[in-house]
Amino acid sequence: MSTVRSQGRRSLLVVGIALSLAVPAPAWAAQPGESSTEWKTDSAKPAADDDIVLDDSPEPSNTKKKSGKKKAAPKAQPREAVISAQVEKAEAERAPLQDQAQKLSDAGNLEGAVGLLAGGAEALRDPVLHLAAADARQKLARKRSADQAKAEWEASLRHIDRADALLAASSGGALDGIRVSPDDVETMHAWSTELRAAADGALPDLVRRTNPVRRNARGELIAGSIFLAGGLAGLGVMAGGIYLSRSADRELPKANGNPDYIAPLEAQKKQGDTMTAAGAVAGVLGVALGVTLVALGATDFKKAKMEQLSRVSVAPTFAPTYGGLSLSARF
Fold this sequence. Notes:
Layout: H1 2-22, H2 39-43, H3 46-56, H4 59-68, H5 79-106, H6 110-124, H7 127-141, H8 146-171, H9 185-210, H10 212-251, H11 259-310, E1 312-318, E2 323-329
Antiparallel strand pairs: 1-2
């Protein structure tokens, strides 16, 4: 009996093993060696995880490539913004100099104001400061003597020329040289024209007054005129002496030896002879020197006039914002 049961159990075991091998396990059944908890299904998903790893594997190399690239350069600022920044910087640099120069001028130290403005204009290459220095020099020139005034007017013209050159350069497109707003360029040109007109009006007279050749010519003309007048006066004295001497000679025979008549006539004759001699010497020398000096003065005067004309030139002037004729003179 027991033997039959044992054989039946073996038969059932064999059938069960055969069925287990032939029929697949259900989806919810745990695989050998795995846990049957729910979080394993949600978290593991081996097939999906494998795909993600394969897709994302190139990312580290891409990251390295990106990190090796240069950063993109910042975009260039608009031209208007650069010009505005340049103008603001220029105004900030010149404002302290202008304020200090105004204080010096108000205190009566116009020479100090001129020096401050001129030095700042050259250091900063600022057309506004150059024009301000030209204006201050012209004010100072009106308080100086002829020679000093001429030097100040000429220096003001140099400042004006420098300002015009800087304005022309900034108008030509050089951003680093812009120190005046484009809207104010015409105003600066108007100021420059006004200052130049004042200098051109004052300098010719000063040049005539301070020109060494002309000054010598004027002195020679004055001295020659004086000598010439003295010489003519000497000739007049000589003529008077001759008249007195001849009158005495005519009256002496009529005296008939009377000492009362002879003595005055002899004194008159002696006086006439002295006047004739002195007048002749003074007259001849005076006229000779006078004529010579007048001739030299006229020659030098003509030479000074020719030099002045040769130093004046007219040339066309062109710039991006204006054009015209430029009158220049070398003094």
